[in-house]
Structure formats: C-alpha cells, structure tokens
Amino acid sequence: MSAIEEREVSLTPASDLLPRSTSRDLAQFPLPNGREEVWRFTPLTAFARVLADEATVAPLSWTATMPEGVSLEEVPVGDPALADLPYPVDRPAALAQAHARHALRLSVPAEAELAEPVVVRLTGNGDLAHGQLVVELGAHARATVVLQHEGVADYVEHTSVLVGDGAALELVHVQTWQDAAVHAGQVAIRLGRDARIRSTQVSLGGAAIRLVETVEYAGPGGDAELIGVYFADAGQHIEHRLFVDHAVPSCRSNVLYKGALQGESAHTVWVGDVLIRAAATGTDTYELNRNLVLTEGARADSVPNLEIETGQIEGAGHASATGRFDDEQLFYLMSRGVPQDVARRLVVRGFFADVIERIGVPSVEAQLLAAVDAELGEIDPTYDFTDLDALEAGLEAIGAGAGEHRA
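Above: the chain sequence. Below: its structure as tokens.
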C-alpha cells in the first residue's frame, strides 16, 4: 500500500467580486464585446470613442479655487511620485493613464485643516480627452475637494484619492456635462489607518456616463461613506459601479445611492460590490440603492453584491429598491391644496433629501436642487413656497422602500 500524502487545502473559493484585471498595461484590458459581466449593461456604441486606443486630441482645461497652503500642479506622467498610485480596474481607466499628457496633482499638507473647499473645474473643449488626477491628503489633514466636470468632451479619467493616516476628506465629484458629452473612468480611493472619506458622486448631464469607484484600505480603522445622486433623462445612460475591498480588520463602509429617471430610453445602472476578505475581522458595511422611475420607457438596473469570507464581522447587508412614481403620494399632496406640478416636485425632492443633506457643500446642494427642478420643468409661479406644512407633507409622503437585507 502506498503512503498517504497529506496536503493542506483551502476551502475558501476564489472571490467572484475581485476585478478580473488590475494593471497599468493596456493590453490586459481588450476591447469589450458586451458579453463580459462588467459590460453587459453598458451601450458600447455610445462609449466607442472613449474605449478606442487613441491619443488625446484636446485636454480638458481647468481652473481652481484653493485655500492657502494647498498645491495644484501638472506633473509629468513619468514622475516617480505617481509610481504607487492605485491600479486601473478597467479599460477606460487604463486608457486614461496611458494617454494623459500629464497628471493634475492636488496636495493638502499634513495637519492642515481647510476652512473653505478646494474647487477644481474641468471643462471639455469638444473633443477626446484623457485625464489623470491625484488628490492627496497628508496625515491628519482635513479638507473638502470638489471636482466639477462641465462643457462637452469624450472624456476618460483615472482619479487617485490618497487619504493619509488619520486624515478626513469630503470629496464631491460632479458631472454637469452638456448633452453630447461622454464620460468614463475610475475614482480609486486608498485610505490610510483611521482615515475617513465621504465621497459623493453627482451625475446629471451628458449623453453617457460610466464611472467605477473603488475603495482599498491600507490600514485598520478606515471609514468610507460613498453617496451618490443621478438623474437620467430621455436617451441618457448613467452607470455607477462600486467595489469596496475590505482586506484589513476593523474598517467600515456605508453606501447610499439614489437615482431618478424619466423619458423614453432613459437608463441607469448601479452595481455595488463589497468584498469582506478572511482577514477583515470586525468589518461593518452596508449598501443601499433606490431608484424612482418617473415615466414609462425608462429603465433602472440595480445589482448589489456582497461576499463574506469571515464570520467575525460587526455587520453586513445590502438593499435595492426600484419603484414608479406613486400616484397615491401625488393625490395625498393635491388633497392638501398643493398644485400637481409642485406636488410632483416635492415628491422627487423628498426622495433625494437624505442624500442631498449629506453632501455638506451648500453650493453643490443648491446646484443639485436646481438641476432636479430643471429636469421636472416649470411650475406654477403663483404658488407660495413658504408653506412649510406642504413641504413637510411632501417629505413625509415618501415611502420607505423595500428589498432590504442585512446579515
């Protein structure tokens, strides 16, 4: 009888949520054909130019408003300071790193506490552009950074967000493109030990938007809050994908995204992937996506995914709900004397209220509310908006939604 061979075998399956490739080599990201899982919701024709291996034609122009002590500079792409940035996870992000003419690097020094936000306005000039941005906070710094995208372009980006140990960043990433713009890319967040970030995505304009946001923890105690608001109109495609990689102990993530859509062929996609690895004991995570469909012909796809490789966690769960505009809510408000167009606006504002209140940048909050109002059209100019009782009724009429699950 032959000797018995003993062998250590891991029973933990390979992760289904890890990106199939993470590389700076563009060859690792071939052109998608639409059959890949990560591209199956995306209209590839709309994104054809930003997926092509072409050089930048006209870089985005930029202006900035910065408090004293903050630096913002164009850095050569071969600079050693850019060597340790997070890796791209898809073709647009890899294209951005391959073809960006320079990296725009924003640095907040250690221990700094900024009283005013840093605002960077990136404006498209009507052609193909690749952008590489780096937002870096030194240890124990406190800052708010707003990245505003406007104009028109076929824009591809890779943005690295590096939050040092004990630092806290409020990041707001706003898409208010003109109607013909196309925007794809990745926002890659790396959190140091006990670092915190609240990252807000606001997608309102453009013909087609596809953004991937990734979070990695470089040490225990990291805290990531990811919130988003999007509003798609007729023929518009807005897609947000998230991947939160819990690989170290005692970290937290919380995701809240809300979207509304109206008009023929309006399409939104939200995919939230959270992976809790075996070493990530003490993790606390939750993700929630809700969508409000205002008209026939619009479609919302919502896919939350949660993979857990350890039972030693504080909590984990996800929720997803998509529903149509509730005529009962409209009737309820109208029965209280609120005109129909105003009632419709109150319901939509109430739907977004808890997300908007978290943004923390008054100018962005006002911009978002104005954009929502513009999407909903003109209202009765004689209505008195000082009627706070009607406003309260509108907010209270919003249903809690369904589809939640927490482990």
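Residues 1-14, 397-407 have pLDDT under 50 and may be disordered.
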